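Quick start: what a row looks like.
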Amino acid sequence: MFGLLRQLCAISGLLLTFCGGIHIGWSIFHLYIAGNKWAVGITVDEYRFAILSFFTGVGFILLLLTFCKDLVSTRVWLIVSSFFFLINGIFFTAMPTYYAATVATRIIAGFGHGIAHLVMTIYIGEIAYKKFRGKLITLIPASMVAGVTVFSIISMVTTNPVYIIEPAMQPNRALGIIIMPLSCGAIVLSFFYTADSPIFILLTRKDEPASLNSIKLFRDQTSETSIVKQEFDEIKLLVSESDVLSKMFITEGNFKPFQLVLMIKLANLLFFNYSMNLAKMAYMSFMFTLTLTSHNWAPPILMLSKLIAVCIAIFSVDILPRRFQYAISSIFTGSFLLAFGIVLATHEYLQPWIAPFLYITAEVFNALGMLPISEILLSEVFPPKKKVFSIINILICEYVGHMIVYIIYFNVPSNPQSTYIKIIVFGGVILLKCLIGVLVIPDTRNTTLREAVNLFFKH
C-alpha cells in the first residue's frame, strides 16, 4: 500500500514525542505529585522553575535548530533526541527525589522533545504518500496526548490527593522506567529505518539519483514506476520553485500562511493551558468522593477521553474537507466552554455531572479536529526552503506561550470568578477563530505536497 509499513517504521520519532507528552503531563498534573520528596524543602520559585524547565529546554533547542537543522540528516537528529531522553530516563530512575536532577534532566528532555517535534513535523510531511499524509501527521499530536494520558495515570496511582504516605513507586522513577526503553527503541529504529526524505536530499545535496532512490524506498518500489516518476517530477518542481526564495518566514507571500497556522496553533494553546486544566481537574473531581487515601480518577478519565478521540481522528481526518472538520471541532469546543462559563457565572450550585460532561465533550471535539488539523497545516503549508524557519518560529511561540500562561497563573491565582471569566473568554476566542479558519483553510486532502503549498499561497 504505497509503502505505508516502510513509512511507519521510519517515523520512530513518535516514540520520542510520546516521551515529550509524558513531560507535558508532568507539568499539567504537577499538583498531584507536589508531596513527593523532590519537592520538599524547596522554595516556591524553585518549584515553579521545575514546572517550566521542560518548556525552557524546548525553546532553547528550537533556537539552536534555526541555524543547524539542515546540517545533518534526520537519522542523526532522532538519535541525538533519543540520547537526550535516555539521559533523562536514567537520572529519573536513579535519582527520582533529587531536585537538581529533576530540573536539569527535564531541561535535557525538553531538548529531546524540541528536536523530535520539529523533525517529525517536517519529515512526515515529506515522506508520506499523499493519501496517508494527514493520518500519519495526526500521529504526532496523538503520541503527545498518549504521553499526557500515561502520566495522568502514573500521578494517580503513585500519589494521593493529599500526600501523607510514601508511595510504592516515585512518579519520577516510574516515568524514567518508561522513557529508557522507549528512547533505546527509538535509537535502534532510527539507525536502521530512518532515511533522508527526497526533498531534503534535493534541497541540501542536489542529488537527483539519491532523491529518486529515496522515493522508491518509501514507496516500497524497486523500479521507477509511473507513480514514482510522477511524484519525483512534482518534488523536483517544488524544490526548484523553492530555491528562488529566501529562508525568511515573513517574506515572499509566506506571512499569510504563517499567520494562519500560528493562529490555529495558539487556539489550542488557549484550550490546553495550565489554568484551564486546573479548572478542568477541579470540576471533574466532582465525580468522586475523595478521601486522604483514595485515588482521583478525574485526570485519567479526562485524558483517556481525549486520547480515544484523537485516535479516532487518525482514521477520520480525511473524511471531511479540512475547513469543515476544523469548524465542527472548534464550534463544539467553543460552545461547550461558553456554556460552562455561563453556568458557572449564573449558578451557585452545580449538579456533579454537569462539569464532567461539558469538559469531556469539549476535549473530545477538540481532539477530533482542532488538534490534528493544526499539526497537519504546520507540516504542509510552507515551501521547503522556508519550512524550517517557519515551523521553528511557530513552535517557539507555542511552547513559550505555555510558559507565559504558567507565569501568569503563578502571579494571578485562580478564583471562582476569574475561572468562569477565563472559560467564557477562551470559548469566545475559539469560536471567533473558527470563523477565520472556515474562511481561509484550504482542502489539502489527497494532494501532493506541492499542490498543498500552492493552495495555501493562493489564499
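That is the whole record. The first helix runs from residue 4 to 10. The two ends are 32 Å apart (CA to CA).
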